[in-house]
Specification:
By secondary structure, the protein is α/β, with parallel strands linked by helices. It has helices at 43-53, 66-74, 89-100, 121-129, 148-151, 200-208, 213-218, 222-227, 247-256, and strands spanning 17-23, 37-38, 41-42, 58-63, 78-81, 108-111, 138-144, 158-162, 171-178, 190-199, 232-237. The chain contains nine helices and eleven strands. The protein has a five-stranded mixed beta barrel. Strands 2-3 form a two-stranded antiparallel ribbon. The chain is globular and about 50 Å long.
């Protein structure tokens, strides 16, 4: 495949991105998770602060319940309540975006999960930087798997990407995502990190489309994007952000943010 010529005329980041943080209370393992206290602030507020520290522009929490909105606004943030019945975070952020930006001023959307209170803001900037390529629709992140047990763990999603690690490349086009151990042969495996940056048209196309066959089989939403012909690029980073899903995770986050 021919390489895109790297010139100022063809390389330009979206001009007006927005960071959207989907959040809802319906967590079975950690009830009321967005409002879990971490040193006097709800977890969702810590995530809000990490997103603001990325300094990429407007940050909005797309929440399913008014309690989350109240907590965010108390901390000086912006939030919008969406339909609690929406099936995914992607649906939630687009619904919120249509409410606050019906005219389409924001040309890129950064989806930061609402359970990442220790997220390094640099990771958000790295994922957004992938949208500089005019051919890229979606940017995301991966980290080289170091633990042997994670290579065969179906809960660790693997990203299969066209990256020549032996030539020092640390980003490339994602070709597939799977819960299986892949690809085969010599070389590192990538643990996919579920932080996404979308060009707005790509997000709209993704949400408007029904789940794909492989998406339903692997239970991985990003496979729908690939089935639609959307290009996903992935950058390899050296850290996996802590996702808070259990009381034990919450304690770890409290220690990290102490």
């Amino acid at each position: 495949m021919a390489q895109v010529q790297r010139t100022p005329s063809t390389l330009a980041l979206p001009a007006n991105p927005i960071v959207m943080i989907p959040a809802r209370m319906a967590s079975t393992r950690l009830p009321n998770k967005p409002l879990a206290d971490i040193h006097g602030l709800p977890m969702i507020v810590h995530v809000l602060k990490r997103a603001q520290e990325a300094k990429l522009g407007r940050v909005v929490v797309a929440c399913a319940e008014p309690e989350i909105k109240a907590a965010v606004e108390k901390a000086g943030g912006e939030a919008v309540v969406t339909d609690p019945a929406l099936p995914s975070g992607s649906d939630r952020i687009l619904a919120a975006l249509k409410t606050i930006d019906a005219k389409g001023a924001h040309d890129a959307v950064i989806n930061v999960q609402g359970d990442l209170p220790t997220l390094d803001p640099a990771l958000i900037r790295t994922a957004f930087g992938l949208l500089e390529n005019p051919e890229t629709d979606i940017g995301t992140l991966g980290c080289i798997i170091l633990k042997e047990s994670e290579k065969t763990n179906p809960n660790v999603v693997k990203a299969i990407a066209e990256i020549d690690f032996y030539k020092g490349s640390m980003q490339g086009r994602a070709l597939y995502f799977t819960r299986a151990t892949a690809p085969s042969g010599d070389g590192p495996l990538l643990h996919h990190i579920g932080l996404y940056t979308y060009k707005r048209a790509a997000l709209e196309k993704f949400v408007a489309s029904p789940p794909s066959a492989l998406e339903k089989r692997e239970k991985l939403e990003q496979l729908r994007a690939l089935s639609l012909g959307l290009r996903i690029d992935i950058a390899v980073v050296d850290t996996i952000p802590l996702g808070v899903d259990t009381p034990e995770d919450l304690e770890v986050a409290r220690k990290m943010l102490k």
